[in-house]
Structures are given as structure tokens and as C-alpha cells.
Design a protein that fits this description.
Blueprint lengths: L13 E3 L2 E5 L6 E5 L2 E7 L5 E8 L7 E4 L5 E2 L2 E7 L6 E8 L2 E2 L4 E2 L13 E3 L17 E3 L22 E4 L1 H6 L11 H6 L1 H7 L3 E4 L3 E3 L6 E2 L6 E2 L7 E7 L12 H14 L3 E6 L16 H9 L23 H17 L4 E4 L18 H8 L7 E4 L19 E4 L1 H11 L5 H9 L3 H4 L7 E3 L9 H4 L35 H20 L3 E5 L28 H4 L1 H16 L22 E4 L14 E6 L11 E7 L5 E4 L9 E6 L22 E4 L3 E7 L1
Parallel strand pairs: 14-15, 14-25, 15-20, 20-21, 21-22, 22-23, 23-24, 24-25
Antiparallel strand pairs: 1-2, 2-8, 3-4, 4-8, 5-6, 5-9, 7-8, 10-11, 12-13, 16-19, 17-18, 26-27, 27-28, 28-32, 29-31, 30-32
Helix pairs in contact: 8-9, 12-14
InterPro entries: GH, GH13_cat_dom, Glyco_hydro_13_N, Glyco_hydro_b, Glycogen_debranch_GlgX, Ig-like_fold, Ig_E-set
GO biological process, one term: glycogen catabolic process
Family: Belongs to the glycosyl hydrolase 13 family.
């Protein structure tokens, strides 16, 4: 090549719409910078014509419309290189011509400009709750991203799955409250300012609720009673799978959301914290036949969505449509998307919303060997990413313990949540189920190992931990749906009063119940997940479906850090204890034998009498001892947990640890703070090594050294 010249294979061959152009390269899909221009490529099987539409940023009318010549079509891909563009100042979209035949699944409309499914940046909602400009002809606009971020030596952390402590949070909620004290509340940058808090808490993985571009104005409405604007707050309604949410970025109005997300990930990694994304590939923001045409519907409706024989949308997502994920083209898009986030954003893992849908065929029937799930499990780029399934969907398919896993997939363990809650409220028959959950659910994951189980008591969807012990029923009136939305099977208990109360006994019991839940969660084999704010008793006022609230109902109130410092300190100490003791973080299930001949089996169960567990339905007491000789590495302390959900205290005879070791108190929820838990290495010696009185509705954890 002669110095100062362009590559000779990128010279224009055509003049189209006032621009120099040539046939594009069909791969990769999307808009890609090439020397002197931009390569645009998009797929559609059934379109008869495709026009590239170019805008100056934020302009109402296009600056050019360039029909892509049929000679530029390769197979079912339309591609074109356009030269001389001010690529930092443009937005683009497409018009597709083709049949309008809804009964046959075709919904082409060349009057509508559609967004590129592979757009790396989407404009139009650049600031949170900005003017939606309802009459704008092309509201969600494809833009180019510029991959010039300096990652230095950063890469995904690859923390072993069994060592994770996951913290689920919503980017905006975490710092939007006025008490957060950050410079850019409600943004990726704001979350970055709170890394010291996350480090102090002890978690090593943040799971971010959806950060792919979505429209907060979707289905927005006024609460008829309060006048509050209700919005699409959670973001489980994706507009663009490759584009980060501009409204979550302090720099979104400048189009710098890509760099802001990367800076957050890089800083979290620098502090040893992984990043997992909650991804929604089961449906899109286009809804059913009444919804808007934004992208997929206008590009190739029959390919991208599951359709009935009459051309209507199957709705296994509960939101109007269902992506046809196991169609080869859609499957390829999902894989390309996750590869992009893993490689360009250094994301450590993905949690898949309503993942059971990913295993359905084009007619909705569950597949025995789902191609997408298998492909993700064996993909070479995603080989070390965590893959976590929410193993159910809104169509009634429940696969907890049976999700196709290919040796790679973990699951949100919904049975863990349900069984822990039932045990905490003293339901009959809870001891046997609790024993399974504390072991990492071998009844569900016997061939996969304990790390396949992501354990949680609460998550974004449902009550917070504080509300779980404060309300018998949901209180979703502020959602404007007459309290008909949200789950009814909460397995909650208000401890004697519905909602806030000045009754000291009720509040003390609630505090103890929250500590009980946290103690059991952090003792359990598997991967614990905390909902942001549970460590400081954040409440949503009994709302168990706060999907529509950009208000204090959803926001993390940072004054609670001081107000509930005792609960926060308890949580920190239990997390630190878990991280210090590998016997709590096994990847394989227990065998209930003393194979190492150290005098104790790897795990043993007890009742109020040592070595005599009480499995009867009426029992509400359980003791569990873990032998540290069977920890990974084989050199840990013995650990014992006793739990009592009776309304009276119980004496527990203690099993003896290995020779030369004595029991010390790690935590006792029956005691008031700060005697409810102790710092590592400061655990006091238990005076009576033979028996202990455990108070009503309490959990005790001991360590022998």
C-alpha cells in the first residue's frame, strides 16, 4: 500500500442517493467502520426491498435514503458500504418492503423506519424520562459505537462459581435516592461511586437488572389515585440487545454510555467484583399485534417471533410476544449478542430471564435438546462466562432442577426460596426440605453439583426481606391495578402486625427473622444471592411487584445504612465467615460418609439430641454439622448450625467436633446486636461444650477450632 492512500479494496463503485457506495460485506451484521466509510448489513428472508435511511443526530427528517440495489443482496442479507459519512454525527435505520399478510406472519410496512437489531448504540431516549416526542417518526435510532476504550490489562475475573456472593441490584435504584450522596444519581457512574460500600459488604459479584436499551415510557400511565407517573422501570422489555441503556448513563446525553458502562466494569474488576447481567431474550418491546413496529416485526416478523398458525403471537412471556429463539438466525443473534458483551464489555456472566422459553420450538413445545441452550453452553468465547437460568416461564413450563444444562448452566433455585420461606414461618414438614436446600439441593442437582444452585430468599420480583417479615399479603395498590398484579403465594408472615408498627416485640421478632434468613442463606451450599437493600431492611411498603415505580418505593434509601447498622454488621460478618471457610463453598455434593477416616462424616444431621435428627412433620428444629476435613483443600474448621422455628426456646445437645477442637460462637440470632454475630477470629468460646439453649425462632452457628 502507498503511504497516505486508502486500502484499494474499499473504493466506491456506485453513486447512490448522493453518496459514494459499493456492495457491502454481509458479515458482521450491524454497522461497522471500514476505511473511509461504514459497512451496513442486515438480514431479512422475506423482504423484497431494503432502503438505508440516514439521519443527522436528532434530526426529524432523514438526510438521505439509499435503496440497496438487489445486486448488493447476498442470500438473505442486504449490505452496503457508504463512504464519506460523518459517522459520529449520524443515526440510521431501514425501510423494508414486502408482503403485508398477518395471517401468513408477514407485517412489512415501508412507511415505518426500523431500528437495526445489531445496533451497538440506540438514540432517542438519551436521558431518563426525557421528552418522548410521541409524534417523532423514528423514535429509537440506531447509532455506531466506537471501540476505543482503554481496558489496560482488564479481563473477566473467572472467580469459581462456588465462591460467589451475588448482589442483585437495579442501576438506577441503587443511587437515585437523594441520600446516596453521589455526583450522578441513578447512573452507572453513580454505582461506580458505591464500590467501597460493596467491598465493605463483602460481595464479589453484582447482578445488574436489565441494562440493554429499553423505553421507560412504554405502557406509561398515571396512577388514577395518586397522579404518579408509572413507567417501565425494571426494563424487562428490550429494544436493542447490543446497546446499553443511555438513560442509565450520566453521559448518555453525550452518547458516551458505552464508555461509562465499560469504566464501571473495569473499576469493579479492579476491586475483585464480577459483573453479571440480567438478560431478556424471551420477548421484545414490540408486544403483540397491537404493539409498535420498532425493529424485528418490520424486518422479518415470521423469523423472529413464535406465531400461531393464524399468524398471532404466542405469549409464553406474559408480555405479548415470544422470540423464536431456536430459529437459526435468532439463535445466531443471541450468541452474537452475548459474545459481544463478553468480549467488548468484559462481562463475567449472564442470568437469563424466563429461560425456559429458550428451550421451546417455534410452536412453543419444549425441546429435549434445545439448540440455543446447547450452543451457549459450548460456545468458545463464552466458555468461562457464568450462565444462570431462571428456569421457568409465564406459559407454565417449570424446569427448576431439570433445565437442560450441558454441564454448564446454573439455575435460580425457586424451590430454595419457597422452602426457606416456609421453614422460617414454621410450616409443617419443613425440616426435610430445609436439609436438602442447606446441602445445595442434591435432590434437584445430584448430577450437577451444589454450584448449579443459585440460592435466594428474595429477589427483585417479590417482597424485599423486610417486607417478607412485615406483611401477610401484598399491597400493590400504588401500581394502579387494584392489587391484582404480583404473586399471591409469598409464604410471608407479618410477625403479628401488618406493616410498620411501634410494637417492640413485633419489631424484635422481625429483626430476628431477617437474620435467620440471612444466616441460613449464607450457610447453605450453592451460590447465595442477596437483593440490594436487604442488608439494611429496605422496604417497598408491601409492594411485591414494583416494576412501574421510579420513586422511593424502588430506590435504595441510604439513611438505612446507619438506621439499621446492626443488621448490616450481621450481614457483613456472615459473608466474611462464608468467604473464610471453604467447607461452606463446596462444588460437589456431600456423600454422608467418613471416607477420610477422621472420625466424622462430611455432613451429619442432628435434632435437639445429637445424631438424632427429627424428620417428623411436626418438627421445627434441625442441627447440621460440616466436617472441615472435607472442605476443598481439606484444611478447614468444623462448622455447626442449629435452627429453631418453635415459639419457645430449645436445648440442643451438641455433637463433638474433631479431637482437639472446641466450639466458638459465630452467630446467634437470639441475641441482640452486637452479640448476634462476631468478627472473624473474635468468635467467643462457648462455655458449655455439651449443650446450648437456642431461643425461639433463632439460628445458631458455631465453629470448632
Amino acid at each position: 500500500m502507498i503511504e497516505g492512500t486508502d486500502r484499494i479494496d474499499y473504493y466506491p463503485t456506485h453513486e447512490l442517493g448522493g453518496y459514494r457506495a459499493r456492495a457491502g460485506r454481509p458479515i458482521p451484521f450491524g454497522a461497522t467502520l471500514v476505511p473511509g466509510g461504514v459497512n451496513f448489513s442486515i438480514y431479512s428472508t422475506h423482504a423484497t426491498a431494503c432502503t438505508l435511511v440516514l439521519f443527522e443526530k436528532r434530526a426529524s427528517e432523514p438526510m438521505a435514503e439509499i435503496p440497496i440495489p438487489s445486486a448488493f443482496r447476498m442470500g438473505n442479507t442486504w449490505s452496503i458500504m457508504v463512504f464519506g459519512l460523518e459517522y459520529e454525527e449520524i443515526e440510521y435505520g431501514y425501510r423494508f418492503e414486502g408482503p403485508w399478510d398477518p395471517e401468513a406472519g408477514q407485517r412489512f410496512d415501508p412507511r415505518v423506519i426500523v431500528c437495526d437489531p445489531y445496533a451497538k448504540v440506540i438514540g432517542g431516549r438519551d436521558t431518563w424520562m426525557g421528552d418522548p416526542e410521541w409524534d417523532r417518526p423514528y423514535p429509537h435510532r440506531s447509532r455506531l459505537a466506537f471501540e476505543d476504550f482503554d481496558w489496560e490489562d482488564d479481563k473477566p475475573l473467572e472467580i469459581p462459581t462456588e465462591d460467589l456472593v451475588i448482589y442483585e441490584t437495579h442501576v438506577r435504584s441503587f443511587t437515585r435516592h437523594p441520600s446516596s450522596g453521589v455526583k450522578a444519581p441513578g447512573t452507572f457512574a453513580g454505582l461506580r461511586e458505591k464500590i467501597p460500600y460493596l467491598l465493605d459488604l463483602g460481595i464479589n459479584c453484582v447482578e445488574l437488572m436489565p441494562i440493554f436499551e429499553f423505553d421507560e415510557w412504554e405502557n406509561s400511565r398515571r396512577n388514577p389515585e395518586t397522579g404518579e407517573t408509572l413507567v417501565n422501570y425494571w426494563g424487562y422489555s428490550t429494544l436493542g440487545f447490543f446497546a446499553p441503556k443511555a438513560g442509565f448513563a450520566a453521559t448518555g446525553k453525550y452518547g458516551m454510555q458505552v464508555d461509562e458502562v465499560k469504566a464501571l466494569v473495569k473499576d469493579l474488576h479492579r476491586h475483585g467484583i464480577e459483573v453479571m447481567l440480567d438478560v431478556v431474550f424471551n420477548h421484545t418491546a414490540e408486544g403483540d399485534h397491537r404493539g409498535p413496529t420498532i425493529s424485528f416485526r418490520g424486518i422479518d416478523n415470521k423469523t423472529y417471533y413464535m406465531l400461531t398458525p393464524e399468524g398471532w403471537y404466542y405469549n409464553f412471556s406474559g408480555t405479548g410476544n415470544t422470540l423464536n429463539c431456536n430459529h437459526p438466525v435468532v439463535r445466531g443473534m443471541v450468541i452474537d449478542c452475548l459474545r459481544y458483551w463478553a468480549s467488548e464489555y468484559h462481562i463475567d456472566g449472564f442470568r437469563f430471564d424466563l429461560a425456559a422459553i429458550l428451550g421451546r420450538d417455534q410452536n412453543g413445545a419444549p425441546l429435549a435438546n434445545p439448540p440455543l441452550i446447547e450452543s451457549l453452553a459450548h460456545d468458545p468465547i463464552l466458555a468461562r462466562c457464568k450462565l444462570v437460568a431462571e428456569a421457568w416461564d409465564a406459559g407454565g413450563l417449570y424446569q427448576v432442577g431439570s433445565f437442560p444444562n450441558y454441564g454448564r448452566w446454573a439455575e435460580w433455585n425457586g424451590k430454595y426460596r419457597d422452602d426457606l420461606r416456609k421453614f422460617l414461618v414454621g410450616a409443617e414438614g419443613g425440616v426435610g426440605a430445609l436439609a436438602q436446600r442447606l446441602q445445595g439441593s442434591p435432590d434437584l442437582y445430584w448430577y450437577r453439583g451444589a454450584s448449579a444452585s443459585v440460592n435466594f430468599v428474595t429477589c427483585h420480583d417479590g417482597f424485599t426481606l423486610c417486607d417478607l417479615v412485615s406483611y401477610n399479603g401484598k399491597h400493590n395498590e400504588s401500581n394502579g391495578e387494584n392489587n391484582n398484579d404480583g404473586a399471591n403465594d409469598n409464604n410471608s408472615w407479618n410477625c403479628g402486625a401488618e406493616g410498620p408498627t411501634n410494637n417492640e416485640e413485633v419489631n424484635a421478632l422481625r429483626s430476628r427473622q431477617m437474620r435467620n434468613a440471612l444466616a441460613l442463606l449464607l450457610f447453605s451450599q450453592g451460590v447465595p444471592m442477596l437483593l440490594a437493600g436487604d442488608e439494611v431492611a429496605r422496604s417497598q411498603g408491601g409492594n411485591n411487584n414494583a416494576y412501574c415505580h421510579d420513586s422511593e418505593i424502588s430506590w435504595f434509601d441510604w439513611t438505612l445504612v446507619d438506621a439499621n447498622a446492626g443488621l448490616l454488621a450481621f450481614t457483613k460478618r456472615l459473608i466474611a465467615f462464608r468467604k473464610a471457610h471453604p467447607v461452606l463453598r463446596r462444588s460437589h455434593h456431600f456423600v454422608h460418609r467418613d471416607d477420610a477416616q477422621v472420625g466424622l462424616p462430611d455432613i451429619s444431621f442432628h435434632g435437639t439430641q445429637a445424631w438424632r435428627p427429627e424428620w417428623a412433620g411436626w418438627s421445627k428444629a434441625l442441627g447440621v454439622m460440616l466436617c472441615g476435613a472435607y472442605a476443598p483443600g481439606g484444611a478447614d474448621d468444623d462448622v455447626y448450625l442449629a435452627t429453631n422455628t418453635y415459639w419457645e426456646g430449645l436445648w440442643f445437645d451438641l455433637p463433638r467436633p474433631r479431637a482437639g477442637r472446641r466450639w466458638h460462637v459465630v452467630a446467634n440470632t437470639g441475641m441482640a446486636a452486637p452479640e448476634d454475630a462476631f468478627d472473624l477470629g473474635q468468635e467467643p468460646l462457648l462455655e458449655d461444650q455439651d449443650r446450648v439453649l437456642l431461643g425461639p425462632r433463632s439460628v445458631l452457628i458455631l465453629v470448632a477450632r
